[in-house]
């Protein structure tokens, strides 16, 4: 009896443990997305540098103050002027008094003076390495004739790049309530500027000596970007970092747009409105740098590029008409497709959504004809869309084509109208002949009797 009770209790305990074990194990099976990331800033963005895939976004379209990140747009316009031949990197510019007007006394500066002569290239180094405000106005005045005209061009260029939440008031980033942009717009501007090799060379410079000028001894410039150098602060350097531009004011907070390269992969990040906080050990931390570093590490460690489709994949059989040999053609991807996926998400888990341009295609079909497209997605995110091509060529049957052409010809509205009109004419003609024939027959008999009438006998 005791053994039976013991067995019953053991069975119940085993059943309870088995029920409890299932939900405990479930979280381990969930892993199709990257670990949750939260950035301590007003806005943040992390984008794959090669494909433009967004890995992380927080308030990326909010209008915020960019501070000296504004200088990325300033540099872009200068480099575009160089590319167009309007000026050259080694051109010497003499500083005017108007170029130095309106600058804050406590703003970032390389102490460039009125009447000093410096090359375009060295002015760019002053602007992008130590964030010299006067260099922005000097170059802007040279490019557009005046600083105001240059700022107008900045806004025009922002609109051309698709920046929907940007308005510039100056070329430096000095605070103004009407001077704002967004993390996404900064990405668009920076991505465009990165297409100029000189831009990345200058932005990625940790230290440089600018040669002496007519009014100054040689200047040694140290970058304001803590990710590139520990000259200004220690504990932030990141070996994968490549540039780009810092910015900070009391209203904007601490801002940074940067890029990083690890192996064959590259990332672009934007952090706006971060803070400088005190740590428990008494040290301070400028979070625009620490959060950018965390973003890069998160992006590199939790995502990898995977092949999600190959040209050899047979996606779908597409019905074919007007062929006597086959009734379908196989559709395959136009190219191999790669996508940046969370490490735990395998390509086999992606859902394929096929869109055919025609439910049935007509022969002849040539190999490589575009039949539709396929989109690969997971949950609510589309990872790639690629065209679908015909795998083989298919000949058409002449007889079937002829039958179709005849059928199509007689199915045209104009042809149907003409046929109806012809039919009506035939019916009218038949009716007319029938009516006229009867009349002729009737009157013919009367005329005959009149011709044989011989008169009345008396």
TrEMBL record:
<protein>
    <recommendedName>
        <fullName>serine-type D-Ala-D-Ala carboxypeptidase</fullName>
        <ecNumber>3.4.16.4</ecNumber>
    </recommendedName>
</protein>
<dbReference type="GO" id="GO:0006508">
    <property type="term" value="P:proteolysis"/>
</dbReference>
<feature type="signal peptide">
    <location>
        <begin position="1"/>
        <end position="28"/>
    </location>
</feature>
<dbReference type="GO" id="GO:0009252">
    <property type="term" value="P:peptidoglycan biosynthetic process"/>
</dbReference>
<feature type="active site">
    <location>
        <position position="131"/>
    </location>
</feature>
<keyword id="KW-0732">Signal</keyword>
<keyword id="KW-0133">Cell shape</keyword>
<dbReference type="GO" id="GO:0009002">
    <property type="term" value="F:serine-type D-Ala-D-Ala carboxypeptidase activity"/>
</dbReference>
<dbReference type="InterPro" id="IPR018044">
    <property type="entry name" value="Peptidase_S11"/>
</dbReference>
<dbReference type="InterPro" id="IPR015956">
    <property type="entry name" value="Peniciliin-bd_prot_C_sf"/>
</dbReference>
<dbReference type="Pfam" id="PF00768">
    <property type="entry name" value="Peptidase_S11"/>
</dbReference>
<keyword id="KW-1133">Transmembrane helix</keyword>
<comment type="pathway">
    <text>Cell wall biogenesis; peptidoglycan biosynthesis.</text>
</comment>
<keyword id="KW-0121">Carboxypeptidase</keyword>
<dbReference type="InterPro" id="IPR012338">
    <property type="entry name" value="Beta-lactam/transpept-like"/>
</dbReference>
<dbReference type="InterPro" id="IPR001967">
    <property type="entry name" value="Peptidase_S11_N"/>
</dbReference>
<keyword id="KW-0645">Protease</keyword>
<keyword id="KW-0472">Membrane</keyword>
<comment type="similarity">
    <text>Belongs to the peptidase S11 family.</text>
</comment>
<keyword id="KW-0378">Hydrolase</keyword>
<feature type="binding site">
    <location>
        <position position="245"/>
    </location>
    <ligand>
        <name>substrate</name>
    </ligand>
</feature>
<feature type="domain" description="Peptidase S11 D-Ala-D-Ala carboxypeptidase A C-terminal">
    <location>
        <begin position="303"/>
        <end position="396"/>
    </location>
</feature>
<dbReference type="Pfam" id="PF07943">
    <property type="entry name" value="PBP5_C"/>
</dbReference>
<dbReference type="GO" id="GO:0071555">
    <property type="term" value="P:cell wall organization"/>
</dbReference>
<dbReference type="InterPro" id="IPR012907">
    <property type="entry name" value="Peptidase_S11_C"/>
</dbReference>
<feature type="active site" description="Proton acceptor">
    <location>
        <position position="71"/>
    </location>
</feature>
<keyword id="KW-0961">Cell wall biogenesis/degradation</keyword>
<feature type="active site" description="Acyl-ester intermediate">
    <location>
        <position position="68"/>
    </location>
</feature>
<comment type="function">
    <text>Removes C-terminal D-alanyl residues from sugar-peptide cell wall precursors.</text>
</comment>
<dbReference type="GO" id="GO:0008360">
    <property type="term" value="P:regulation of cell shape"/>
</dbReference>
<feature type="transmembrane region" description="Helical">
    <location>
        <begin position="414"/>
        <end position="436"/>
    </location>
</feature>
<dbReference type="InterPro" id="IPR037167">
    <property type="entry name" value="Peptidase_S11_C_sf"/>
</dbReference>
<keyword id="KW-0812">Transmembrane</keyword>
<keyword id="KW-0573">Peptidoglycan synthesis</keyword>
